[in-house]
Amino acid sequence: MNPSEASSPPPRALATPRYAIIVAGGSGTRMGADRPKQFLDLAGEPVLVHTLRRFTDPELGVQELVVVLPAEQLAVWAAICAQHQVGPHTVVAGGATRWASVRAGLAQLARHASGVVAVHDGVRPLTPRTVIEATYQAAHNHGAAVAAVVPKDSVRNLSQQGSYALNRARLRLVQTPQCFDLDLLRRAYQLPELSTFTDDASVVEDLHAITLVEGDYRNLKITTPEDLFVAEALLRAMRDPVNE
Ligand SMILES: Nc1ccn([C@@H]2O[C@H](COP(=O)(O)OP(=O)(O)OP(=O)(O)O)[C@@H](O)[C@H]2O)c(=O)n1
Ligand SMILES: C[C@](O)(CO)[C@H](O)COP(=O)(O)O
Q1: Which residues bear the site annotation Positions MEP for the nucleophilic attack (predicted)?
Q2: Which of 95, 163, 198, 214 has an alpha carbon within 20 to 30 A of 190's alpha carbon?
Q3: Which domains does the chain have, with CATH numbers?
Q4: Burial class (CB in 10 A: 0-12, 13-18, 19+), 75
Q5: Percentage above 90 pLDDT, the chain
């Protein structure tokens, strides 16, 4: 625990325990930076520090937070934690794919019998608390819930003849957090990995229906360089009490 955490308010007590796995085990090839994008600077602090703060908010009552990192970056993260205010968490080494990293995070939660677990991208540093809370609650009520938003652009499907328009009213852009009953997520991650998995909902959906929760357009995933500029502007706006 960071000494500055000692005086923070106690976590909210909840009947159903809440856990979170923050996956930050990727290398950021699309960003093309000199280090993984989760360590890049966003308004004076590494992206991942911002992301963790979203989940250490005592109002959420998360009992255990697991951070998954590339094995070769564990020392880098330790140095970051020594310099920045980061709440209590455990660290595990990830795998070659996001799926393998989530599995490693789940293994860290093996001693817990039950609860609801959130899986969240370490590179989504702007997720509003209301979205996290709503996703945990929906998973508590329905077993599996993911945050998603309506597409703002028109969407076309590629075909052999060229392309055709899709009805975007029937489409959703999926974000994280993605929250699940702990036992359900464990069972889903015992099945073999498929190349079609892009998120946790795609791993779980053969076992259980996925409930969609209203996400937020500010909850962007930092993927390519321009996302950092947008994230910085959004962060400034979200810190302005007029906007939040
Ligand atoms: N082996 C992996 C791959 C991805 N992730 C995490 O999953 C989230 C979403 O993945 P993505 O944005 O694709 O991150 P990268 O894999 O780092 O990026 P890229 O695909 O551009 O290499 C990120 O927080 C990333 O760190 C992970 O934990 N382990
Ligand atoms: C999990 C995710 O962020 C939901 O939108 C997304 O699927 C991650 O995809 P990526 O290819 O790893 O960026």
Answers
A1: 168, 221
A2: 214
A3: 15-239 (3.90.550.10)
A4: exposed
A5: 91
**ipTM of this model?**
0.98
* Residue entry with tokens 């255990």: 64
Task: Give distance in angstroms: CA of 203 to centre of ligand 1.
Answer: 16
Give residue 138 CA to ligand 2 midpoint distance, Å: 21
Taking the alpha carbons at both ends of the chain, their separation in whole angstroms is 28
CA–CA separation, 20 vs 22, rounded Å? 6
Residue 30 phi, psi (nearest 5): -70, -25
Whether 199 lines ligand 1, by a CB cut-off of 6 Å, is: no
Atom of ligand 1 nearest to the CA of 95: 1
Single-letter amino acid, residue 214: E
Give me ligand 2 centre to Cα 53, in Å.
Answer: 21
Is the separation of the CB atoms in 38 and 26 below 8 Å? yes
Q: Quick check: CB of 70 below 6 Å from ligand 1?
A: no
Other Cβ atoms less than 10 A from the Cβ of 64: the count is: 18
Q: Which tens digit of pLDDT belongs to each residue from 73-99?
A: 999 999 999 999 999 999 999 999 999
Ligand nearest to the CA of 202: 2
Does this model's pTM top 0.90? My answer is yes
